[in-house]
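Backbone-to-sequence.
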């Protein structure tokens, strides 16, 4: 079951504009406004931790693409594997620097599925029912990854394993844990937190915490 108290509290944050500083900064400033650097990786979710193993994990890509696909774990592992180093920034005001990831770059995925001309957004669907929306241009950036390893080890279930998105230029709620489906659409569509007062884009450097 979802954590209704946590969800209600975060909706109140959105209504109250909690953590907003009113500042803005260029991405060249490594720590976005209102953030504090941490060494740990806090665990946050909506209260549901699905028991997804590599044996039963699949990823489906559908919608406005020329070549829809569905990978099981073996097919995912056969794809080109890429290593990235990136920072992550949570809307709850913590940032963690220099995270080492391994997985499939979204640019390589896009080469396979070939989004149609009218595709402008990607809706991420998770095994726990969570959804979030990102612009296709952001999803296609050169540092975005379908990650299955963190710091040289398999991504833990608590942090979204077997596979989660890592889109480091947006707040971390835009990087869905327990990734199950990627839907390519023409019109933007609010996901779980966006329906509850959070920003449709989520840029940390302009403090797009809430809509």
């Amino acid at each position: 079951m979802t954590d209704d108290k946590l969800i209600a509290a975060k909706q109140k944050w959105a209504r109250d504009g909690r953590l907003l500083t009113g500042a803005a900064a260029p991405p060249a400033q490594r720590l976005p406004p209102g953030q504090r650097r941490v060494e740990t990786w806090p665990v946050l979710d909506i209260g549901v931790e699905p028991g997804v193993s590599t044996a039963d994990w699949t990823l489906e890509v559908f919608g406005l693409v020329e070549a829809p696909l569905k990978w099981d774990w073996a097919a995912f592992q056969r794809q080109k594997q890429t290593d990235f180093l990136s920072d992550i920034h949570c809307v709850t005001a913590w940032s963690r620097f220099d995270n080492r990831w391994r997985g499939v770059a979204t640019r390589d995925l896009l080469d396979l599925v070939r989004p149609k001309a009218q595709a402008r957004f990607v809706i991420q669907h998770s095994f726990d029912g969570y959804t979030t929306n990102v612009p296709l241009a952001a999803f296609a950036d050169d540092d975005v990854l379908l990650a299955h390893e963190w710091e040289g080890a398999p991504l833990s279930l608590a942090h979204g394993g077997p596979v989660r998105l890592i889109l480091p230029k947006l707040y971390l709620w835009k990087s869905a844990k327990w990734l199950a489906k990627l839907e390519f659409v023409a019109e933007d569509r609010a996901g779980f937190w966006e329906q509850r007062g959070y920003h449709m884009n989520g840029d940390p450097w302009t403090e797009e915490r809430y809509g």
